Amino acid sequence: MSEPSKPQGRKFQLPEHLKVYQNVWVIVEQERGIVHSVSLELLGEARKLADKLGVEVGAVVLGAESPDLNRICGDAIGYGADIVYKVTDPALADYRTDPYCRVMTEVVNTHKPEIVLLGATTLGRDLAGAIATTLATGLTADCTELDIYADNRSLAATRPTFGGTLLCTIQTLAYRPQMATVRPRVMAMPDRDDARTGRVVEIRPVLREEDIVTKVLNFIADREQNEAQLAFADIIVSAGKGLGKVENMKLVFDLARVLGAEVGVTRPLVQAGWATNDRQVGQTGKTVRPKLYIAAGISGAIQHRVGMEKSDLILAINTDPNATIFDFAHLGLVGDALKILPALTDAFGRRLSVNRMAG
Amino acid sequence: MHIVVCIKQVPDSAQIRIHPVTNTIMRQGVPAIINPFDLFSLEEALRLKDRVGARVTVLTMGPPMAETSLRKALSLGADDAVLLTDRKFAGSDTLATSYALTSAIRKLAEEEPVDIVFCGKQTVDGDTAQVGPGIATRLGFEQLTYITKIEDLDTASNEIVVQRRSEGGVQVLKTKLPCMITMLEGTNTIRFGKMDDLFRAARYELKTWSRDFTGAEEGRVGLKGSPTVVSKVFVPKPRAEKAKMIQADTDTPDAQAAAAIDAIFGAQPKLADDLLARAAAGL
User: Fold this and answer.
1) Do A5 and B137 touch (CB under 8 A)?
2) Which of A190, A131, A155, A141 is CA-nearest to residue A24?
3) What region holds the Electron transfer flavoprotein alpha/beta-subunit N-terminal domain (chain A) (predicted)?
4) Would you say residue A41 has pLDDT above 90?
5) Would an 8 Å CB–CB cutoff place A232 in contact with chain B?
6) How many domains does chain B have?
7) In a domain? residue B7
8) ipTM of the complex
9) What CATH number should be reported for the domain holding residue B108?
10) Which pTM was predicted?
């Protein structure tokens, strides 16, 4: 991405023929009948943008025909869509770039949305990068805020850059659609409204399996017990370099067990081999939004901060009263995490087990 | 087999500072490195070279000083290096960048057809993950992102089997060359260069290509060829208030823990109810 500079010879006005582009779309990510939560979060965000623009929300659901897919179309309406474009073909059963890109390019060119949003997941980023190229339009990755500029109805997509040290607002002024990806858990999950109604447009693209070079041989599902599910955790206990040595990770896992929490870490711990990268929170790791985030021995570097600062409640434990983390945590405790973590484990354990006996 | 590895020279983001008055990035004194994500792709390309034999060409677009990163890649074992540099490229966004790099890859393919293009998963400065897919789409190559393992490469049938990370698990994909691959981080460790390669890298005469030379159209690169416009750059707003510091009656860990739990449950009464309900249910 470029740094801001004086534009020369660039078009900033939307050409007349692109003014027919209308509505805000979300490409709903589903794999094997399960919708990724980020798609529902985006439907909530699309609803807000569409209401500002006075247009409709479209949800694109791609896959093979199945009862699950019909349920997902219903969910899309419940979470904010007015129109669901249900695109079905057996070749779309599993995600593959080529058929998904071909189909989406055609659907966008036919129905002409002004904004297209996708989750910044492995699927969303893979697909967005491809279709922004076929459509020759602007795409902004990993947005943390989306808004509409009232004067020209354009999308203002704000994202962190240079490792989160700066934020920049990016616009696509003279091209359509305007595309953006958003990481899971950055936007709030909307409430489902069962009373909402919408219409479903059935699209059956012409795809021939023999024209698709890439074949899916197998799918190895993550076993939940092995893979950390940080993005969906209500409570996360995270460790930083302040823990001193790898043996002390046990203290973090002990507290997490009592709380039914997940364990997160900062990037240096992954690099040191103390934890696997599925536990990394931050700029190059996961963005989390738990109800409670306990940060033990974490200084609060910006790269970590951008991944967790939207947590409902952050408790920071650090020996250094001047640690940066106290600038944005909600609760601070100056002290030795190595002593406080076991004390917390005991105290939480006692409070929760007392209640269990009483209840 | 001809493999092209696209790399980018980036400022070491851990050492970036923002000018307190002008809010701009202070590049002075910030060391430049090969984008860390690119190293996983470079290593995988070099492993394929070891396995089946291949010519590995590294390609970068950037200012003349990006030469440093190309020489580094050569010292690690790459055979050739191309520096795509032209002031006309300045200000290119991802669409214009993938266009420019594609024009250079096409030029390379005139000498020897390209079978695999490797790109980094994303860069640490831009973080977009868009240039790789852009190149694959333009070249009409099969697009294989977030690859965790190359299981098999059959040079006779041109078939490749890879494992790809997806949200709920790992996809095992079989496809044909040519393809564009981005490797997931942590899937390999970049090698140490050999002494021979180090000397070769120092002596190597870099290929320096301009926009004109690759045939890239002027209107499709640089700011002119970039649909996105950066309308505002700013420093994140610090939170208005600092953390409320928890004070315990005594400095013992037990007292501090008790005070912390009171503070947590005081701020989030609903969390206390949830936890107690879970505990009561024996979870």
Assistant:
1) no
2) A155
3) 24-216
4) yes
5) no
6) 2
7) yes
8) 0.87
9) 3.40.50.620
10) 0.83
